[in-house]
Amino acid sequence: MPLPVPGPPEALYIHVPFCISLCPYCDFVVVAGAEARGPASRIPGYVAAVRRELELRADTLDARWGAVGSPTRPRLGSLYLGGGTPSILPPDAIAGLIRLVELRYGLADRAEVSLEANPGPDDRGDPAALVAAGITRLSYGAQALDDATLKSLGRRHRAADVVEAVAEAREAGIESLNLDLLYDVPGTSVEGWMTTLDWALELEPDHLSLYALTLDDPDAEGLTGPLGDHLPTTRGARRWRDTARAGQDEDRAAAMYHHAVHRLAEVGFEAYEISNWARPGHESRHNLAYWERRPYEAVGPGAHAFDGAVRRWTAARLDTYSNALTPADGSPGRLPPGGEEALDAASAAAERVILGLRTSSGLPAEAMAEPPLAEHIGWALAAELIDVTADDRIVLTTRGRLLSNELFARLV
Ligand code: SF4
Fold first, then answer.
1. What is the 3-state secondary structure (H, E, C) of 347-411?
2. What is the pLDDT of residue 216?
3. What is the CATH number of domain 345-411?
4. Which atom of ligand 1 is least distant from the CA of 25?
5. Residue among 18, 27, 28 whose CB has most ligand 1 atoms within 8 A, to mutate
């Protein structure tokens, strides 16, 4: 098994931890309410801190890999502002962050510059200003396209807002547009999901991300301590999840997923990853970098970076983050605390197999004879989770995509 080899980043993620309100199923690193807007908003302080982190991480990369644009330090193919709701940042702050990234990290010609947005009228931002700032791809957290389901999920927007947001983005000339949708939501039916997908297709997105509603407990998983990459779950959200869990149904989720596979193939979308479908040429280059295990840098509270050999994360708490980077005493600031994990050859091999199988290109057939797949391949083939294509690639079947967690748990 080859040892993991580090390399300079090809992509950069900026985590923006602000939303106007908290959705009860959300496990992302987010602060909301008065911290996200109004006179007590912490957005200006965060922008100063994240700019400082961008500078400090760039200094480290310069020292390690050389100047941007040199043969050992390629410009970035992708920049992704995720959250949270990055669209609630002032457009000049977004433009300033993109300029700083261009200066210190370099952006390749036709780099993908993505921003996550909510569709509501007061948090979707101004798409024309976003395009002027350099955003090329917008990803809207639509989640559902009927008002009753949106309400049951605790979302602030209505279905009509998604229609308006998409129209505005197209009018502004956005190059690529994604809609996120959730399935296996309590109270929904397979027929309702079919209608949702058809309505989504009427909006002519370039990309669809379809996720089963997951109701994990980051506290129980030990991820929420002072240096953890998650924030504690509120009591209200915990109660909401306990009720919602009872309304989920594996068989219904499977039927919804199967329908998406067939319906989206009919209209020319490629299922290029377990949860992601795109029209040709609109695959998310940023997410492909993750699945292909290419090195990426990341900044912001709770953000994860990978240099090809070491995974690093930043502690999730905004106070810890800002106090380190922009100390109240005016001293220059230092990198925020967090943690890291060096991958050994076995864990790198497991990651390579799991991430490769998530994608439609899968793995070369030789992977069947190597650990960790060799030990489980007989079972996976017999259970019809894996198939071998005519051009000798190992890929997940639709059943394998649905049961991927079961397979992946055996591979780690
Ligand atoms: S809008 Fe998105 S990031 Fe914000 S709380 Fe809801 S699910 Fe989480």
1. HHHHHHHHHHHHECCCEEHHHHHCCCCCCCHHHHHHCCCEEECCCCEEEECHHHHHCHHHHHHHH
2. 85
3. 1.10.10
4. 7
5. 28
